[in-house]
Amino acid sequence: MNRVAARLAMAGLAVTCLGAGAALAATNKPDPKLVWPKDNRFTCSGVLAEEQGILLLTPDQNMLTWCDADIDDKYRSRVLNVCKLGDRCEIKGTIRGHGAFGWVEINSIVRTVSPR
Whole-prediction pTM value? Predict the structure, then answer.
């Protein structure tokens, strides 16, 4: 094999390997519902619920896993002034925790219309 043919063969092999690597990387992408925002700021929507005396969102299907975080008593009346139990609601703010998660800051609360 001459030098040109050898270089072309090596280039083809490199492209094949790079293509396989890219395909492998694509299959190892993390589930977007499990990617924690770097700034801890969340936008969550769902139905406002209460479980065992704790206020929380029952998050929509496409929301991040942590959107069912507990709504602290500090924010309870503020959330209930905008959304009643069973209402669709959007909450923006900061969630923190480890094992158990809660809203530590709520920046906005909006009662939303149910999707049809």
Answer: 0.68
